[in-house]
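Per reviewer request, we include the raw input and output of the structure prediction for the construct analysed in the revised manuscript.
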Amino acid sequence: METRELTVLAGSFVGFQLFFSVACPRLSSAIAQGYGRLPATKLTEWNSRLVSTVHALIVGLFCLYILWFDDEVNANPVWGDPGLVKLNVAITCGYLLYDLVLLACNWSTMGDSFFVCHHLAALYAYGYVLTRGVLPYFANFRLISELSTPFVNQRWFFEALKYPRSHQMVVLNGIAMAVVFFLVRIAVMPSYWASVFATFGTADFERLGSGAQVAWITSCIALDILNTIWMYKIARGCYKVMTGRGGRKGKDGSEALSSSDKKHVNNHAD
């Protein structure tokens, strides 16, 4: 890993830590009247999700810029100039490390072995991008999925503030969440996998070596399976809210949505 990427990773880790502990409480108190009345455990998760939203916007918009304007990466998806992509991935890796520390420090209320495994697997896969500069196009393409995260987190914010699920803002956010999630995680699958299959058997693909090949393909398969399951739950929850069938009792579609929406989906540092 080059000094530049290491600096960005470390700066991202420290920056997200500071934003969580210093900026989030002040910003949230200013924009959400009910923030100060939340119990301590929810305050921690609120701040965590606000950091998640900021990370998602930074990384997601950076991804779109690279996709639209980085001709070298688009021309050679396996070995194109990874400069900008590595910076974006370094930001995400710093965020993942920050989140692992946060989970460890609040394990009794926020700990989830699934997310620990997810973060470690993501760090392993992105490690190839940072250390070898491989697969820049595909790493960037995957990070676009973070654009759905702000809507997922906003849904949790409404829930924490006890907005009724029939509230117009809740319904509109739910629809937007379902649409954006579908666009950045499901609708892109055919295009993404067509690009993957196009590399098979090429000299560039063979040059990757079996370690990078396995990390790349297996992580993508697992992620798309999860995204498909999450899309089903989101669509079901959205339908129930729109038709007035969503309630707060039992494990209805909306609660299933909440459990599947924990932070990243996505993913994300997907």
